[in-house]
Amino acid sequence: MSFLGDVFAGRSTIDFRPKWRISMAVSGFLVLASIVLLLTRGLNLSIDFEGGGIWEVPVGDNVTVGDARDAVSAAEDARITLVSTSNLSIIQVQSGTAALERSDEIISQLSDLAGTTRDEVSVSQIGPTWGDQITSKAIRALVFFFIAVALYLAWRLEWRMAVGALVAVVHDLVLVAGVYSLFGFEVSPATVIALLTILGYSLYDTVVVYDKVLENDRGLLGERLEPSELVSVSMNQVLMRSINTTITTVLPVLSMLIIGSFLLGGAGLRDFGLALFIGLLSGTYSSIFVAAPLLVILKERQPDQRRAAQIEARRRERAAKGGDADAADESLNGSGDHDEQPISPDGFDPRLITPGGGPPRPRKKGKRR
Amino acid sequence: MSRGAKISSLSVVAAAFLGIVYTVVAGNQPLLGLDLQGGVSVVLEPTSTSGDDVTDESLDLTVELLRGRIDEIGVAEPEISRQGTNIVVALPGVVEDQEQALERLQQTAELRFRPVIFDLGPDLSNLDLTDENGNPINLDDLTGEGVDDGSGSTDTTDATSQDTTSDSGDGTTDSTADEEGSMAGQAGRFSPLVLAQDESTSTTEAGNDATSTTSAADDTADSTSTTATEDDATDSTVAPTPTPQSTLTPDQLAAAEACSIEGVTPDNADEADAYVVLDDRDGNRLCLGPTMLTGEVVETAEVSLDFTGSGWEVNPVFRPGAGGIDQFNAAARSCYALNPDPNLCPSGRLAIVLDHQVISAPSINAETFARDQIVISGAFEEEEARLLAEALRFGALPLELQAQEIRTVSATIGHDVLDAGVIAGIIGLILVATYLLAYYRLAGLVAISGLILSGMLLWTIVAWFGDRYGLALSLAGVVGLIVAIGVSADSNIVYFENVKESYVSGRRVPTAIERAYQSAISTIVKADVVSLIAAVLLYWLTVGAVRGFAFYLGLATILDLLISWMFMRPALAWLAQRGAVEKNPRLLGLPSLAGGSE
Fold this sequence. Notes:
The complex is a heterodimer. Chain A is an alpha+beta fold. Chain A has 3 domains: 3-44 and 130-301, Multidrug efflux transporter AcrB transmembrane domain (Multidrug efflux transporter AcrB transmembrane fold), CATH 1.20.1640.10; 52-126, 2-Layer Sandwich (Alpha-Beta Plaits), CATH 3.30.70.120; 305-366, no CATH class. Chain A is 66% helix and 8% strand. Chain A has helices spanning 3-9, 16-40, 47-50, 65-71, 103-114, 130-156, 159-183, 189-220, 227-262, 268-301, 305-320, 325-339, 363-366, and strands at 44-45, 52-59, 79-84, 89-95, 122-126, 186-187. In chain A, strands 3-4-2-5 form a 4-stranded antiparallel sheet. In chain A, strands 1-6 form a two-stranded parallel ribbon. In chain A, α2 (16-40) crosses α7, α7 packs across α10 and α8 packs antiparallel against α9 (227-262). In chain A, 49% of the residues are buried. Chain B is 53% helix and 16% strand. Chain B has helices spanning 3-26, 34-37, 56-73, 98-105, 139-151, 157-169, 172-186, 203-206, 213-228, 231-237, 250-258, 325-335, 382-396, 411-440, 443-469, 475-504, 509-541, 545-576, 579-583, and strands at 31-32, 39-48, 79-83, 86-92, 111-121, 189-192, 276-279, 285-288, 293-294, 298-305, 312-318, 350-354, 357-360, 363-364, 374-380, 399-409, 472-473. In chain B, strands 5, 7, 8, 9, 12 and 13 form a 6-stranded antiparallel sheet that branches. In chain B, strands 10-11-15-6-14 form a 5-stranded mixed sheet. A 4-stranded antiparallel sheet of chain B has the order 3-4-2-16. In chain B, α15 packs antiparallel against α18 (545-576). Chain B is elongated, with a radius of gyration of 34 Å. The chains are: A alpha+beta, B alpha+beta. At the A-B interface, α1, β2, β5, α6 and α8 of A face β16, α14, α16, α17 and α18 of B. β5 (122-126) of chain A pairs antiparallel with β16 of chain B, so a sheet runs across the interface.
């Protein structure tokens, strides 16, 4: 049996545990490095955040940046770039708020340079406080989003999973910001949108992994596993799923990035594509190598009364229906391990608690083994 | 495959095709955002001049005012929307004289009280204030012409001419009373609340000794008849000056000149201290004098039912003292309808003007008012009264509009971006489709059909929203849609992998397809709900491009849920029942069980 074939069939038996030790160390280092970068180098914020103007005009092939600099005398200290695409060259002039007053002049000079009418000049003028407004609104949205998603995941999955998923997402955001800081890529509103999308993706992948863990944890494997083993086994089962979802998501984004870079200039698609691309890779990585081990750590640290109670309840259910006695014994032993750990603060014997974490899975699932 | 599943999958297919047919037949097309088709987009941030909070009401009114301004600028299909407390104005296409247009958009709307010099009536085209020799025409003669011009074709000509005749026959006071009564039908009047409590429609005259009983009765009749007739006709009965004059005072001359055809251009309409000609809400042109007071004197205004119970009236409250009611009373003395100042306010009416538009031009029925005992009555429709009250309240707290972001996109660059977006989307789709087919074989077809169906539904919805609500597809939206391709594929992958797992654990293909669905849909719903939470929060809490993106992300997620729920399983089950597939499950991308490896 080839390894790939096993992965394909979901029968691979990779032991993720040693890999997680490495990945957690690597992620920790990367996050730290990103934070240091953000604090020292900071981000290259676009005009949209700082206030100022961007003037763009499509020009003929023979116009150079030098020509543009000579022609556009009205914008001192402007950053002038030439963006060439397969069918269009665009001269882009970026300048601070001071140049806004001379916008009219800059437009005239650019249209003269390009030999076009004034209508052909694209202008973005952004007031100095507008960027703050966008940023503060985006941050507010982010905070609400985290709270809402944490509540939802805690309700549908487990609170530990909510914590793990959010940490993984923050990890992705910090890493992307770190990459932007390191390479000095410009952060535009498009980048912000892309970052917000990454949140969704990273969570999608993580939810797929956690859902599998939950399914297995509810006894589908028929035996009680240590948290680390449980997560590792689940990881193996969803590995192909994660790889495939990543590939199908990355393909359109990659096409956007490449076409945005080669066919088209300016802020547009490339800005979106770049942040999405980096974020997606980080999101897939984090769902396997950050969210999963984090869940193990959280599960190992906490006495899991609910789980023990569920297993106990299931044992009784099976026993009542004359189910597999061995399985019942196994789960009894499993929960016996937990008896030595502190009981819940309320002092309930976990075995007396009826399953409350969610409805028991349909019986038909139990028949699988 | 169950009957229900068959029906649900077929209904999705039918809906998608019907949607496309409808879109084509109705000629709906997605409305492109400015970043894709070129144009000007402006984000205006309103701030209250007094530092108070910006109210919802004044924002809504500001949007209406902006709509009016853009009409004047002459831009087709503008899109004006509120985003939080910001107002976003999108002007597609090429905007002529852009600087001036932008300046106009950012003007602070001021509520002004201007005296009505005279009512030019609805039709100005034949009016000339000078005769052949170039001499100014007597204002009385002028309105005489105006009557003919304005009401010549209406049914009420008879009534009008009767009124005019009786006016000229009667004494000064009667004529004034008549005029006032007729105006009550169309423009309303400012009255002290105490006086307005008398029961007849001619209440305003009740406390006035100068008015004879006869004229009051006349007035009542007049008022009744005018409310029943067309506004045009009533307007023309408004005689501008109470006393016949053969010569004009310098003030009147200035007014006449300002209000001549040449002066009608709206160029000077913004000048607070000039004579201007403005339209009222019924399309009548009013010649207005310099601003007497501004909205800052108003404290608030409410609407209420009038005493007849059938019409509505407005109760303004002015601020106390010199910054409020004193100014209004000074204006009221000049415009007092029974004794108007022939130079300042010959018609006895005071127009309430907000941003070029005469909201109302009531007559003034007392010389002094108590600041909170005032009523503007005139049997208004509820909507009219509300607009007037809103305008007065708005005037009390005018909003300053500041452009936070101005983006002009040339059509060339816009189209280039659109092309690139479409190409990127198509290539992305082809890549994903190829991958799915290579990996999942025929099952990939289910995923691809799902993508195509959701694409068709998306096109229908996007085109419909664009057509109906002017919701534009921006670059961020296009990105959202491209990204949605990946999301839809993800859901299929989650399902197919679950089927594979179930199959590997020893189930027959049809059973695996049914069983795997339960856990797959649970995972898909969880993951999609997270996306929906993101979309909804982003839409609510952010501004600008992020919102457009959030809308399309949310839409695509809902469609993904729909397709996963109704289409995915029946389609796969149907495929599995085909003979060739039944014999060889590997055609569905499932591993061969014997060898274990592909």
